[in-house]
Design a protein that fits this description.
This protein is an alpha/beta fold and 437 residues long. The protein contains 8 helices and 18 strands. It has 3 domains: 174 residues, Spo0b-associated Gtp-binding Protein, Chain: A (Distorted Sandwich); 170 residues, Rossmann fold; 74 residues, GMP Synthetase, Chain A, domain 3, CATH 3.30.300.350. Helix content is 20%, strand content 22%. The structure holds guanosine-5'-triphosphate and magnesium ion.
């Protein structure tokens, strides 16, 4: 399947159901009380990390995700049902960015990590809720709120413990196949591997995830070969295996190969140059001159690097390489949560919505055409919720405008009788009670 590690999707929470305005009708009871039920909440759109996925390829076919709307409230005090949540899976290691602001909003690392990508709108309240001793027959209800909608950029940075790097054809995929359950494509030409492969090295007690990526060439950071963007998939590893082809080569040539790859690695991210690394001299079966690897061992130990020879083909030294990996992984367990690039999931609750703070400031923007826009979270939501074709709702909305001193603010901003004012998606003409002429 095609490997995709970046994609933009669009998510929309379900709309809340409308509240109902109704009065109880029963034989011999002419003045039954208000009995309009509440609308149900719109469903959320949720992203969830699943370990059986390794690419964002599924999203190439579908990029729009919407959750179900809440049902409308009904008479006889019947509340509408909530909309179902739409849940979809992404690979572990998916970073989520808000496309508009570019801000990172979630990093789904572990299997089951989930994130509410778009909240469903609240259901409108039915007239039954508004009944009180002072207002026994409220003739109004609320509309449901729209669900949250936004576009998100998903970026995959695979989660693996060990990363395999090296020139094309060095034998990275062969080493992965020898160490793990993976069966990557292996062939005697460069750039056999075109996208990352994951494999698991398993023992009775341990399971270590290895990532094999396409080969790096000289100039990869300048976009030669397959470029270096694949290096993002080893960013979250804790140990690198630098695979070198030592067959039919002298020590100088092998050292040059090593430097080429290191330099590309460091150009991508200098921090990767300091990551713990084991240098694997592969294809020892085809290396006729033992003096070459003795020389290499001396050079790498002088550089302070861990060096060992192996053969993916004959299996020589593969068990000791596996042991080394497992020992490292035990000594450096994956820090839970620490590999996250930013917050693991966004916790949005009703509490957050209720929080006032800066949100409580009303802003008036005077528009180029002469109109005015009122910016305020609660007022915008109210404009959406209140069904303004019901006269009592118009009165409620007006009292809310008074509470936030919107008329005074509009007048200060230069609004006169008849100026057009918009709050959220609702537009009306400005006829102030106090400031009217
Ligand atoms: N003799 C010998 N050949 C090997 C050994 N390991 C790999 N090869 C051969 O080297 C060639 C390249 O192996 P791959 O595993 O595809 O190399 P790679 O580093 O993954 O290459 P790219 O994916 O192109 O970057 C294949 O023909 C393998 O059979 C080994 O230990 N000994
Ligand atoms: Mg390969």
């Amino acid at each position: 399947m095609k490997f995709v590690d970046e994609i933009t999707i669009y998510v929309r929470g379900g709309r809340g159901g409308n509240g109902c305005m109704s009065f109880r009708r029963e034989k011999y009871r002419p003045n039954g009380g208000p009995d309009g039920g509440n609308g149900g909440r719109g469903g959320n759109v949720v992203l969830k990390a699943a370990s059986n996925l390794q690419s964002l390829a599924d999203f190439e076919r579908r990029q729009r995700f919407a959750a179900e709307n809440g049902s409308h409230g009904e008479g006889n005090a019947k509340n509408g049902a909530s909309g179902k949540t739409t849940e979809f899976c992404v690979p572990c290691g998916t970073l989520v960015y808000d496309s508009g602001s570019g801000e990172g909003v979630a990093d789904l690392v572990e299997e089951g990590d989930s994130f509410v990508a778009a909240m469903g709108g609240r259901g409108g309240r039915g007239n039954r809720v508004f009944a009180s001793s002072a207002r026994m027959a409220p003739r109004f209800s609320e509309k449901g709120e729209l669900g949250e909608e936004r576009s998100l950029r998903l970026e995959l940075k695979l989660i693996a413990d060990i990363g395999l790097i090296g020139l094309p054809n060095a034998g990275k995929s062969s080493i992965l196949a020898a160490l793990s359950n993976a069966a990557p494509k292996i062939a005697d030409y460069p750039f056999t591997t075109l996208s990352p492969n994951l494999g698991v090295l398993k023992t009775y007690t341990d399971a270590v995830v290895l990532a094999d990526i396409p080969g790096l060439t000289e100039g990869a950071s300048g976009d030669k070969g397959l470029g270096i963007s694949f290096l993002r998939h080893i960013e979250r590893t804790r140990l690198l295996l630098h695979v070198l082809d030592i067959s039919a080569r002298d020590a100088d040539a092998v050292t040059r190969d090593f430097r080429t790859v290191r330099s590309e690695l460091e150009q991508y991210d200098p921090e990767l140059g300091t990551r713990p690394c084991v240098v694997v001299g592969n294809k020892i079966d085809a290396c006729e001159d033992p003096a070459v690897y003795a020389e290499l061992a001396a050079r790498f130990s002088a550089l302070g690097m861990d060096f060992m020879t192996a053969s993916a083909l004959s299996g020589e030294n593969i068990p000791s390489l596996a042991m080394r990996i497992i020992e490292f992984s035990r000594a450096h367990p994956r820090p839970k949560g620490c590999v996250r690039m930013f917050a693991d999931c966004r916790v949005i609750g009703i509490d957050e919505m209720k929080q006032g703070g800066a949100k409580d400031r009303v802003q008036i923007i005077s528009l180029p055409g002469g109109g005015f826009r009122v910016l305020h979270d609660r007022l915008e939501k109210a404009a959406e919720r209140y069904d303004l074709s019901q006269s009592e709702n118009v009165a409620r909305f007006s009292s809310l405008l008074r509470k936030y001193r919107v008329e005074e603010l509009l007048a200060e901003a230069g609004a006169v009788s008849g100026s057009s004012v918009s709050v959220g998606g609702t537009e009306f003409d400005f006829y102030p009670d106090k400031y009217g002429d």
